[in-house]
Amino acid sequence: MRALISVSDKSGIVEFARDLVSLGIEIISTGGTYSKLKEAEIPAIEVSELTGFPECLDGRVKTLHPVVHGGLLAMRSNPSHMKQLADLNIKPIDLVVVNLYPFKATVLKEGVTRAEAVENIDIGGPTMLRSAAKNYQDVAVVVDPEDYDKVLSELKTQKEVSLDTKLYLMQKVFMHTSAYDTLIADYLKKERNDSSLPETLTMTFEKIQDMRYGENPHQIAAFYREISNKRGSITDAKQLNGKELSFNNINDTNGALELLKEFTEPTVVACKHGNPCGVGSGDDIYTAWSKAFMADKVSIFGGIVVLNRELTLEIAKEMSEIYLEVVVAPSYEKEALDLLQKKKNIRVLELADIEVGQDDNAYDLKKINGGLIVQSVDNKLLNMDELRVVTDREPSEKEMKDLLFAWKVVKFVKSNGIAIAKDMQTVGIGPGQVNRIWATKQAIDHAAELIDPDACKGAVLASDAFFPFDDCVEAAYKAGITAIIQPGGAIRDEDSIKKCNEYGVTMIFTNMRHFKH
After folding, report:
1. Most buried by CB count within 10 Å: which residue of 128, 209, 224, 468?
2. What is the pLDDT averaged over residues 291-310?
3. Above pLDDT 90, what percent of the chain?
4. Cα 28 from Cα 112, distance rounded (Å)
5. Rounded mean pLDDT, 468-483
6. How far apart are CA 470 and CA 69, in angstroms?
7. Residues forming beta bridges with residue 60, ordered by sequence position
8. Are 424 and 405 in contact (CB under 8 A)?
């Protein structure tokens, strides 16, 4: 048997090659790999000796030669192939161990140039991998050092690599080269500042962990991250306490974090089942926490809480008295972390760059049966120069502050969505109803039930889309709400405007909606 070894990731390669030699396998190698094996006193043939042609073009051409690819692609069961090998004095290669130039590591470096990135696009490696994988019946091809032990075990016990294992290794090769090419294409798209949606969409992600189950126990699930140097994502959070994050934990925490990123002032977001249940902003983080907690002391039980300032001992003491699934903060006072870590079930995460938002060119993806619908992420809140007061009365400074607060919240409430706020605190949220008046009534009823019967007096209301009728204005006024912010654009906008003027309620149109399905 003969093995061709050419690896960029050299972890474990010396030990693996030594074991191959002990099994009587002849080794062919190239460049840095050849040097490393010779340094370890492992016998190897340099590929240029095999081909009779020197490496050239600064190493760009090493293995692109018929002696290599003929030895890989010849089907042993095909007499014609084997006769041609004999006539051309080409020997078969039975094992290929190749991993590729570190393109990912290169493009993730700060300040990398395009020339550096392009030079780290591997050509010979993918070509050898594909040739060997195509002829999987006769050639075992190893792209992942994690598979060295599996291959060695079969060679030692069976004198060959089983067909089933070869097929498994073939699959890994094409998954690997597909991901590699996708990284290159994605890098070039970003280099060109190309924000268009391509004719064919390829994406690649790395698995972080397998999960016990998905959204429900009968569904399998895993957690993947984008291959980028993106900051501010739950994929980059450091877990300091608690069990592994579940599918629902990750989904809900991501939603809470994306809402939190809308705020620069001290803010706390409590989330449950993908919807905010309590949001508060204040001059300090304890005030923000108190507002978020008091907004809905019922729903926060078993929920997610995210903060954009250091979590203090004072807050940790109050958190420790309730059951929370996940807490995320940019940092923790030592005493606060010590206290939270006494609760085994709470998942405590630290996310240093918690304020960093998504790239404008990022995709929002939704899987449908038989396809995928893709859009740019909803990174805009509103255009301040497009805000328009459509009623006779202008909002007061306090109302305006609360209206913008409520608009940030309602952007992340499932449609039809309503958010009622007062003094930079949510007092009622109505998510996911099939009509807007139900969402409005739900938000009003929750405010009265969870805070106090007069919670909506002097409050403001935000709607993620326009009012089709004036019934929401009627309900808001009766509850004591004095100001409304909504996109506008309904056929019957004038009915809502007229009703607001009749009641002295001020209303602002944003000319931008935030559906969230």
Report:
1. 128
2. 96
3. 66
4. 33
5. 96
6. 74
7. none
8. yes
Residue type, 157: T
pLDDT of residue 284: 97
Active site residue 273: yes
Which regions of 189-243 does DSSP assign to beta strands (E)? 205-210, 222-226, 238-241
Q: Are 490 and 509 in contact (CB under 8 A)?
A: no
Instruction: Specify the DSSP element, H or E, that contains 98.
Output: strand 95-99
Q: How far is CA 375 from CA 228, 259, 361, 367, 379, in A?
A: 19, 19, 10, 12, 11
Question: Which domains does the chain show, CATH number per domain?
Answer: 2-191 (3.40.50.1380), 207-226+237-350 (3.40.140.20), 384-509 (3.40.140.20)
Higher-scoring residue by pLDDT: 492, 204: 492
Average pLDDT over residues 269-289: 96
CA distances from 454 to 449, 457, 504 (A): 10, 5, 19
Match 């192939």 to its residue by tokens: 81
Q: Which two tokens stand for residue 486?
A: 């909504």
Amino acid present at 313? L
Rounded CA separation 183/105 (Å): 11
pLDDT in tens, 443-475: 999 999 989 999 999 999 999 999 999 999 999
Residue with tokens 């395009």: 114
Q: What is the DSSP letter of 277?
A: E
Type of residue numbered 41: E
What one-character DSSP code corresponds to residue 121? -
Write the CB contacts of 28 (distance below 8 Å, at least 6 apart in sequence).
2, 3, 4, 5, 44, 45, 46, 47, 50, 93
Inform me whether the pLDDT recorded for 166 exceeds 70. Answer: yes
- Tell how far CA 28 is from the center of its chain: 40
| Residue of 134, 189, 297, 398 marked catalytic | 134
List 273, 297, 343, 401, catalytic entry: 273
Task: Give the residues across from 45 on adjacent strands.
Answer: 28
Q: State how far the alpha carbon of 391 is from the alpha carbons of 117, 209, 468, 488, 495, in Å.
A: 56, 53, 17, 12, 11
Give percent of the chain with pLDDT exceeding 70.
99
User: At 509, phi and psi to the nearest 5?
Assistant: -100, 135
Average pLDDT score, the chain: 91
| Cis peptide bond prior to 135, omega within 30° of 0 | no
pLDDT, tens digit, for every residue of 179-210?
888 888 888 888 888 888 888 888 888 898 99
Known active-site residue 517: no
pLDDT on residue 229: 64
